[in-house]
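If you are new to this repository, start here. Below is one unmodified record pulled from the training split, so you can see the exact layout before writing a loader.
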Amino acid sequence: MDPEQTRNYYQQSRAARWTALATISVCYILSAMTLSSTHVAIPAIGEDLHASALLLSWIPTAYLLTNVVLLLPFGRLADTYGRRRVFLLGVVLLTLGTLLAGLAPAIGWLLAARVVQGIGGAMLFACGMAIVLSTFPVHFRGTAIGIISGSAYLGLTGGPLVGGFLTEFAGWRSVFLVQVPLGLAVTVLIVAKLKGEWRSTVVQPFDWRGSAALAVWALSLSIGFSLVPGLPGLSLVVLGVLVLAYFIRHLARAPHPLVDVRAVRANRDFFRAITNAALMYASAYPLVFLLSLYLQYILGKSPAQAGSIMFVQAMVMAFMSPISGRLADRHNPQSIAAAGSFCVACGFAVLAAAGFNTPALHILAGLLLIGVGMGLFSTPNNSAGLSAVSANRLGESSALINLSRNFGNIWSTVLVLLFISLFLGGEKIQPAQYGTLLWVTRLLFGLSCLYALFACWLNIGSRRSVSSPAGAE
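And here is the target side for that same chain:
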């Protein structure tokens, strides 16, 4: 089916709309679980592959960094060549990378496999939300976004529960290998059930220079901070800053930039949505990675116990996301997002007070607040932003919201890499370093609290405005 036939098909068939939503939700669970389930397995991976603390921190970073570099280019390419086509290829690459990770004989192989997973994840996330928005009517978009957001949250924070039990009872490789048949099943599901094709009716030249600058900036800054305070690291950080300045200048002057910053800034609703997404996910990234290390190294929990504690957030977020979607369809989404941001800030304040003998109930209280807050925040924020963009730019705009989320993740990743490089370095984590690990964890949780408070302030202090669609001609 061509795009026009696809639009008519989904307008006329309620069952087809829900089948598409269910298919994409399953893919979001798988992709998010690929990212998060490895966190609990990191200490076991380090022991088996003899990896340093710095190399272990690159296990989540390799995936996230690849997403940042490729998410927006894939969103633009999907608008041009077909969102279903890019989405399907993304699932195939994600499954291939997962298989390679499960077979990794060394840490370098594992990191390369994480890059392949990141490419697949970028393709998937660049297209999934745009397909859903192209399928459902406007008045139901908040609910649909809530369902797929809840699916992503279920995979993202439910992954540690699955990963913890698999690591403890079947070894860390099983965390990856068990996902391979799921990926193959999802591939068959897409081919059989996700009918038609979606693409933009307005085709623009692709901004290769902007994409290259984005890649160089993200890579040089992340790698540079992991090598600080050495001269190579400082040189890469300086290069990253210079390339960022060029990237911003290029976006302002290019006739067809990777991101039309003038249109985005003119669209206040969309600009606010991506700013808040960056802040909130900058707060969220250190949680799963550092909390996993804290629970296992400092509190002495097993992988299964750590995963069970962290699963509290998954249950709450998955429960709250569809509810917040319905609320966003009926009430001011900014107010709901502001309440969510404040809950997240309170949760991180609780976790930042954790110490060597903190009871599990203290940790659970912090995770409960963060789960409620993120569940309340994400869907209303995405719904408000994407409702302000034109249909021809849904793929690009969906990718831009995901990109802003990953920019927030990368900012926090850079800080994690910097502090681990400075204070834990290239050695395996030993009991003598637990005090330093606790200090780094509490500091980064405190920063996460500040990011969430700033996002709350932006939502409370701003006024809803009527703006033209992002990227409208």
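Two things worth knowing about this chain: The radius of gyration is 21 Å. The chain has two domains: 3-194+258-461, 208-257.
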